[in-house]
Amino acid sequence: MGRIDTIxxxxxxxxxxxxxxxxxxxxxxxDSLAEILLSLQDAGASVVEVGFPFSDPIADGPIIAAxxxxxxxxxxxxxxVLDQISSVRERLRIGLxxxxxxxxxxxxxxxxxxxxxVMRYRDAGIDGFIFPDLPLEESxxxxxxxxxAGLSCxxxxxxxxxxDRAAKIAQASSGFLYLLARSGITGxxxxxxxxxxxxxxxRQVSKLPIAVGFGISTPEHVRHVVQTADAAIVGSxxxxxxxxASPDQSPAQVAGDFCRQLAAGLx
Length: 267
Prior knowledge:
Blueprint: H1 3-13, E1 18-24, H2 33-42, E2 47-51, H3 62-73, H4 78-88, E3 95-99, H5 102-109, H6 114-124, E4 128-130, H7 140-149, E5 152-154, E6 156-157, H8 163-172, E7 177-180, H9 196-205, E8 210-213, H10 219-225, E9 231-234, H11 236-244, H12 251-263
Parallel strand pairs: 1-2, 1-9, 2-3, 3-4, 4-5, 6-7, 7-8, 8-9
């Protein structure tokens, strides 16, 4: 089993749920990722989604899109992100999932096919992938490369995805299922919808853990989600707090403090 599988199996055995923060690599500074990952681990995260900056992010709202653009303007590259992950991987127990555009992955293949670039990510310390802009029908070679490397490969399921299509996505995914709490783009919301029916449907077609994201921003949201799901994903709310931190505040401490607040919702 890969690290993502092991983490969720151990959590399930202990009757616990997971907090999965999302961070934008290269933000707020090009060199801040390693310390932020360590801080999130100490604050109770089980898996962290690492967003690789992309000029045209898919489904990301203004907060994450702005963070990615700033990271790109500061010179952040996929290679730098992988170097930072590699520098701290031995100190991390948490899982790391790359949220990365398939365009970035394709540019790195240099005509060699998916396996070489997937192995590069694995060797740096990545445990799985989310390809938000990769159509399921075009994913065979990438899913095979991830499986060969022992990494998870997860696709998004939206509230409007028809049940038969959702079942195909669930069966093609590995590691965990990513269920969007709402359609549209990422961003903070005041209320969380009732997802119990959708989650029950997915449980019938897959044994994978179910993680819910899009709009989760408070401990109460986390508590609501993990009543039926296995994990809560928090992105925009965390990125906003890091973006709004004053110059004299440590981005890692700001991220850790907020993650610790959110983790209270797992109790």
